[in-house]
């Protein structure tokens, strides 16, 4: 038995190389990662091995998360961590913490939707955690369809207050993160009513718990939501919340845009697009971080499948074949490495662009690019969450039976990743915005205004239609050939969508594949542009990134996310064959020449991966035996109180047969 | 707020109609279902609402399962339930029970692999639960590759015993169901060694726990395995087991086939195929029951999506649209209803055929059909587990955010269904047996001997190659057109596979899609034959079954399980369009005319579905609020012991700022 993990090098601390700095998004980000990693991995409160979360009661798992939240608050306040660092530290704990919304959706709403006076009062309170914030939008009866939310905020002129109410069961705020136990203040989305007139949804900062006692405020009825599917999101206390004539001062309606004056006059917002803002922020963050989720799963799968041996490829071989050398593993795993890389690299670009825009926009009030960012982040959210959740589960399955052990970590990763497919907008619902925008701009010939739709012009002028004569294998690596194929596929799908819409068909199903195809193109383009920049700089890792790009580009063509994407690009068999050959060659090339180097450059640590299949000082078998089995809370004598019951059960037949005999005897006597 | 569930009729007890008897596989099966349902749904020990399993510690959830196992044993012994009824009752509990292997893999091995003398001794013990059985094959280091298992059973002539040993860490028996706490006897797969000669794997009935105390037997080292991914299989105590010179009498080697005489003479088995047997049995059972898992998920999704309203299809409408009326829901859900039906109906045929064969084979010793059943059940296992696991998760996602609540039940369903993708043989590994058989019989022109490969002859004589001129929509409903398309697709994939094999390529990845395409055809053919029988009998439900068949056939063509299946059937756009139109029309027709009737005929009860989204007396919103939130173990004052910690955390900034000021003052003074 191997006593160590051989040449599978699994770092304890982040390892720094120029390539890893590039992949992690630059020196600043890399250093932040290292600092956070240091602070958490070496602090026993954040230990990932001290407690086996999937074994304990949910309440106990949440308690642990609440104590971690407290410790993280201490760290932030004492060391002056940035909001970003705080957010990233929460992610590193993996199971979410109750304080998670504080610097995501809570703060971003205060920031974007409050007037300057309001900000001066509330932001310091939020920043120093004097209040714990949440964001209450979703109701039992309405998710994506925000317009039909039922909660009301009625203006009471006499007391200069709003009265918040939940008029129906279906208006119960539901799924509200951190609200079940933790939060003291919630930004409540409610219909503004003044003199019975409905002014639509506005945001109201509502105190829900007493700051000194944590008891519910009068009229606020809250329940924690109960467990989530797959044991997901253990650290979040979601809430179900109803309001019964809850009064808040007029000054707590978020008033950067619309306002209500003391006499009840409604002052309209200058800009209608402002409401996009907070969703765009959250989705921009999601676009990048889901890529990291996928890459961690890929890394665990890599470490395990390059350890595990099974069968012999060639029967004459003495030793068994390492499973990563089988096409069945390689062809599942390596495209996911390339896709994860694309999600992260292109996702970082989106976040960077949006951050720059935001800073500028807060100064100038110029919202002109917001629609493009909205579109980009919707597409990115749908694309990245689909690929990641599906990819994480593919990694687990590629590890075979042992992937099903909770300590492999894949279950936790999937539970937390797949959640994003239906939250912050169900993918099938929000995904419809992409085709809608495509249609609008195609019709109006306005795609020039939106960088992410630039390909529409090429579709319109028909330049995509001339089929290049593709030579075996090599040609598929040419970007112009890839672009031709991606545009041809999109052109076909867009035309079909135009036709369907004209025919009055319900396109809510087919939209999804179109959104994926659109995003394939957007990500391909983003990755390609990034590679072009690198080609000029010629860093030492150019070859690795090029190899990742090839696998990404060819996998979205050869093995698209949905069968209808394959149907939309019906290549002649000869071209299909050459595409497949090019794809397989790109996968083989990456596997043979760059895989180990790329995994090393990402350098996920033992702490980051949190998997028994990837321990620095133990093989997966040692870890599965020692951590999985020997430490099981049901091992040894721990269930011995049930032993007499089992022994007794095995003797039950005697009693039952005995009783039957007796009965028989009795009947015989009668 | 609606106080009831309107026209969503969710039964408390199984409802009987001719259609439901047909779907459930005949009167006997239906009656058994009803009896078991009665026994469990009305017995508080089996209540599914008394305890929220995903909230409690795993140990407590298992304890509950152990007590249920005891009660089920009592029911079986007292009421003389059949083994099948017992097995089905375990399934109805949903989370598996420790006693689960008793009448599946344990008994089926005693039955098939023991000599008559051995059976006379052991089967009564197993039947009356005097011993608790398990089956120990998988090791830490080997799953599908049974040949390389490392556990040894060395014959000791002097004592007429075998000595069982685990020579390495990787030889630890791992994942062994029911072995962590419960089992007293295990059928151990080990290499037989006689005078240092290795005779390969044989089965050894080994006592692992004392019958009177439940303590481990000398030399047996067992640990329970720890939690599983997604909180799956809560009722199973899997074990990790090592043997250190464990002695068993020679009479406990299972000796129906091979035998060891007291002088150490090895008597060869008459038939080499005998070892297939137990896997074939288990997989045959799996093929049918996974279909039921899918159908239950479909039913829950149906009940929820026909209650939930969101947005308006037509903006002028007053009320919102029921979400099942959107193509995005319909096109995901209805093909799954058809696929689930195909899995069950065709799966029942496989089990029936195999059962008949087994009875006959035990008498005659004729193994000639075993290869075909092996092939059928491998294909069915891969096909049914892939479609079911993917389908259950699709149902959850189609329910949007509320599907992520643990009480929706989808999480539990997925956790338990997806397990089957990697157990009893990893799908990517065992799936390779199908293409291997195709190749062998295609080369040898022996497909005539295997009914499930009959299509190879048509491929060989080229009769599939002439393309029919397909008329819009209607023609795709013709079975001969469907068969043409399925065979054309298969022909292309088989040819590619032949070419790849000839080129020495590693086909372990592409095999999987070929297995799915092969199974598409096998299930299509099976469903079609069944429909032909019905067409002669003309029952009242013929139209419904026909509608299900159309959706099944067109969905496997239009929306295949893997993109490469779409590539292998590159239809001209006109044919693609007509296929899609036919598919959509079939889905619409089923949705509009038969959906409610089919769901009613399946008639899953509230107890069977076990979902807050499908309660007989509550709407999903009422159930999510009352059962999910109001009953949450973290609601109310249950976390009040943590309130002072939270209050204190919100005041932390004062202390830290205070300390900083003091420090500043100190420095100023210095």
Automatic annotation (TrEMBL), chains A, B:
It comes from Friedmanniomyces simplex. This is Acyl-coenzyme A oxidase. Residues 19-132 form the Acyl-coenzyme A oxidase N-terminal domain. FAD binds at residues 138, 177. Residues 276-439 form the Acyl-CoA oxidase C-alpha1 domain. One of its GO terms (biological process) is fatty acid beta-oxidation using acyl-CoA oxidase. Its main location: other. Belongs to the acyl-CoA oxidase family. It is found in: Peroxisome. One of its GO terms (molecular function) is fatty acid binding. Its cofactor is FAD. GO terms for cellular component: peroxisome. InterPro entries: ACOX_C_alpha1, Acyl-CoA_ox_N, Acyl-CoA_Oxase/DH_mid-dom_sf, Acyl-CoA_oxidase, Acyl-CoA_oxidase_C, AcylCo_DH-like_C, AcylCoA_DH/ox_N_sf, AcylCoA_DH/oxidase_NM_dom_sf. The active site is at 424 (proton acceptor). Residues 499-634 form the Acyl-CoA oxidase C-terminal domain. Keywords: FAD, Fatty acid metabolism, Flavoprotein, Lipid metabolism, Oxidoreductase, Peroxisome.
């Amino acid at each position: 038995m191997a006593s160590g993990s051989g040449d599978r090098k699994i770092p304890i601390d982040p390892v720094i190389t120029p390539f890893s700095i590039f992949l992690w998004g630059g020196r600043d980000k890399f250093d932040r990662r290292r600092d956070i990693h240091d602070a958490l991995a070496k602090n026993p409160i954040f230990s990932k091995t001290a407690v086996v979360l999937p074994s304990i009661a949910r309440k106990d798992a949440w308690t642990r998360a609440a104590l971690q939240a407290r410790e993280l608050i201490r760290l932030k306040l004492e060391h002056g961590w940035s909001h970003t660092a705080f957010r990233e530290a929460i992610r590193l704990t993996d199971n979410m913490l109750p304080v998670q919304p504080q610097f995501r959706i809570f703060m971003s709403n205060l920031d974007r939707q409050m007037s300057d006076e309001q900000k001066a009062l509330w932001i310091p309170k939020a920043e120093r955690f004097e209040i714990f914030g949440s964001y209450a939008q979703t109701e039992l009866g309405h998710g994506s369809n925000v317009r039909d939310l039922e909660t009301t905020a009625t203006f009471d002129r006499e007391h200069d207050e709003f009265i918040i109410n939940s008029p129906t069961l279906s208006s119960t705020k539901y799924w509200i993160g951190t609200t079940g136990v933790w939060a003291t203040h919630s930004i409540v989305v409610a219909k503004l009513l003044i003199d019975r007139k409905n002014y639509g949804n506005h945001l109201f900062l509502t105190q829900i718990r007493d700051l000194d006692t944590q008891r519910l405020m009068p009229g606020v009825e809250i329940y924690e939501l109960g467990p989530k599917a797959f044991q997901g999101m253990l650290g979040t206390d979601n809430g179900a919340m109803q309001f019964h004539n809850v009064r808040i001062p007029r000054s707590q309606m978020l008033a950067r845009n619309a306002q209500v004056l003391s006499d009840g006059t409604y002052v309209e917002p200058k800009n209608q697009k402002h409401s996009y803002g907070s969703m765009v922020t959250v989705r921009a963050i999601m676009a990048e971080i889901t890529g990291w989720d996928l890459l961690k799963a890929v890394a665990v799968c890599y470490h395990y499948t390059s350890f595990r041996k099974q069968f012999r490829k060639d029967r004459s071989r003495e030793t068994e074949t390492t499973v990563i050398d089988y096409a069945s593993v390689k062809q599942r795993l390596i495209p996911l490495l390339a896709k994860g890389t694309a999600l992260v690299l292109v996702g970082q670009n989106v976040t960077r662009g949006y951050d720059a825009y935001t800073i500028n926009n807060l100064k100038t009030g110029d919202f002109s690019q917001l629609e493009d960012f909205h579109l980009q982040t919707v597409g990115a959210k749908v694309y990245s969450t689909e690929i990641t959740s599906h990819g994480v589960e593919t990694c687990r399955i590629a590890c075979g039976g042992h992937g099903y052990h909770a300590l492999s970590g894949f279950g936790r990763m999937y539970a937390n990743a797949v959640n994003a497919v239906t939250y912050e907008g169900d993918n099938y619902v929000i995904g419809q915005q992409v085709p809608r925008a495509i249609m609008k701009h195609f019709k109006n010939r306005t795609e020039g205004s939106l960088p992410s739709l630039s390909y529409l012009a090429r579709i319109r002028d028909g330049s995509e239609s001339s089929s290049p004569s593709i030579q075996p294998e090599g040609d598929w690596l040419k970007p112009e050939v890839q672009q031709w194929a991606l545009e041809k596929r999109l052109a076909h799908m867009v035309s079909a969508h135009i036709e369907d819409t004209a025919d009055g068909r319900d396109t809510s199903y087919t939209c999804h594949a179109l959104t994926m195809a659109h995003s394939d193109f957007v990500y391909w383009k983003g990755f390609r542009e990034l590679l072009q920049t690198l080609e000029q700089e010629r860093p030492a890792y150019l070859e690795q990134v090029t190899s990742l790009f090839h696998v990404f580009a060819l996998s979205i063509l050869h093995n698209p996310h949905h069968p209808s994407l394959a149907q939309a690009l019906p290549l002649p068999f000869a071209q299909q064959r050459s595409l497949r050959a090019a794809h397989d060659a790109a996968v083989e090339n990456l596997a043979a020449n760059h895989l180990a180097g790329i995994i090393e450059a990402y350098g996920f640590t033992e702490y980051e991966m949190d998997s028994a299949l990837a321990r620095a000082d133990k093989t997966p078998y040692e870890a599965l035996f020692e951590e999985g089995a020997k430490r099981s809370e049901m091992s040894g004598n721990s269930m011995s109180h049930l032993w007499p019951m089992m022994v007794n059960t095995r003797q039950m037949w005697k009693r039952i047969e005995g009783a039957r005999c007796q009965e028989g005897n009795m009947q015989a006597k009668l």
